[in-house]
Write a structure and sequence with these properties.
single chain, 321 residues, alpha+beta, Uridine Diphospho-n-acetylenolpyruvylglucosamine Reductase, domain 3, Uridine Diphospho-n-acetylenolpyruvylglucosamine Reductase, domain 1, five-stranded antiparallel β-sheet, 24% helix
Length: 321
């Protein structure tokens, strides 16, 4: 166990103070031992969807390094520490459909059920069969079914509380299945006759244009990706606003709301700001602080609320505030 370990380098945003205590977990036993300590606990993996306070975390940070992938007739079981995009690439290479539109998303496998990660018309909840986790209440390993995970739009049972620590995830994919080309932006690029590899390539290309693919040479990728969730509102609230129906409600574009509330691409707030490629991403321009990010978030929320009567909710988890 180490003390005062900087956490900023372990996040895609590159912001955050140190961990009071820090340990790497390479297997389930390491996780169990770490969680037996009576102190605040933070589980950190890819660091792609977190905002850590400038003061850091006043307890133990467990950095998940669990590895291992099993393939079996369309099923993929991957350890929580496996890089997510590697799993997508493996599925596409085998011509297993179900997660191809989730290409290029940074972070680890363990984060995907927590956030119910989704993009371009696909969510992981569509293919997750089960999640293997450590139950901090019973102190036992447990398997949660898809229904047990209580998936919702960019949320799940795991995001609502920290009882379960995700150790591995099993996905049920469709060998030889057709690619999902539901999203209009993707349809324009690949049409309806694309194969899985073409869809993957197109998604990565689209994400790269938006600065949503990690690239050390692109400062716009020093971010948490999409910082705000697309709000789902009533038809009355959505009147005269661009969106598309979701059951009896309407999903609005958070990016459109932000831009039309007066925040242009490349908007600057101190050492942070909006991406020059996409208004939905908050970027660290160099030397940025969590305080500056929070100030910008609140400013954007207030202007969108004032102009459109819509509340924007951040997607990343805020830690240490």
């Amino acid at each position: 166990m180490r003390r005062d370990v900087p956490l900023a380098p372990l996040t895609t945003l590159g912001i955050g103070g140190p961990a009071k205590f820090f340990v790497e977990a390479h297997n389930a036993k390491d996780v169990v031992e770490a969680t037996s300590r009576d102190q605040p606990l933070l589980i950190l993996a890819g660091g792609s969807n977190v905002l850590i306070a400038d003061e850091g975390f006043p307890g133990l940070v467990v950095h998940l390094q669990l590895r291992g992938v099993t393939l079996d007739g369309g099923r993929i079981t991957a350890a929580a520490g496996e890089p997510w995009d590697g799993i997508v690439a493996e599925a596409v290479a085998k011509n297993w459909a179900g997660i191809e539109c989730l290409s290029g998303i940074p972070g680890s496998v363990g984060a995907t059920p927590i956030q119910n990660v989704g993009a371009y018309g696909q969510d992981v909840s569509e293919t997750i069969v089960s999640v293997e986790a450590f139950d901090r209440v019973t102190r036992r390993m447990t398997t949660l079914s898809n229904a047990d995970c209580e998936f919702g739009y960019r949320t799940s049972r795991f995001k609502k509380n920290d009882r379960f620590i995700v150790l591995s995830v099993t996905f049920e994919l469709t060998p030889g299945g057709p690619p999902a080309v539901r999203y209009p932006e993707l349809q324009k690029v690949v049409g309806n006759a694309a194969n899985l590899q073409q869809v993957r390539d197109a998604v990565i290309a689209i994400r790269r244009k938006k600065g949503m693919v990690i690239d050390p040479n692109d400062p716009d990728t020093r971010s948490d990706g999409s910082f705000f969730m697309n709000p789902i509102v009533s038809k009355e609230v959505a009147a005269n606003l661009p969106g598309f129906p979701v059951d009896d409600r309407v999903k609005l574009s958070a990016a459109w709301l932000i831009e039309n509330a007066g925040f242009h691409k490349g908007f600057v707030h101190g050492n942070v700001g909006l991406s020059t490629k996409h208004t939905l991403a908050i970027v660290n321009r160099g030397g940025g602080t969590a305080r500056e990010v929070l100030e910008l978030v609140r400013k954007i929320q207030a202007e969108v609320r004032e102009k459109f009567g819509v509340e924007l909710h951040p997607e990343p988890t805020f830690i240490g505030f």
